Amino acid sequence: TLRGYHRHRMVDDVLTNPGEMDITASVNFTRVERIAEAIGLGVVPLTRQSQYLVSLFDKTLQWPKLFPEWTPDRTRQFQTLVHPEHLGDSFKVLECSRP
Which has more pLDDT, 63 or 85? Predict the structure, then answer.
C-alpha cells in the first residue's frame, strides 16, 4: 500500500505537492528477505528504525571529526526518527549486503 504524508497528515494523492511530501509503502519483508537470500545476499534480521538509527549513531560518534556538529534542531529531528510514538517503531529496516 502506497501512502503519502504532507505536513504530518496522510494524503490520498501521492502525486500532489511533489518534493514536499513523504511517500511510504507497506513492504512484505519476508518475501524481500527470501529473494535476497536466494540471490546470495547477506541479510541482517529485520529491526525497528529506532534500533537501527541509534546503533548507526553510536558507530558514527566513534569518528567525531567526520560528523557535523549537532544543533538543537538536528537533535529534535533525530528524536522524532527514533521515538517509539513517532517514527521509531512505525518503520522497519532490512539490511542486505554482498558477502
Answer: 85
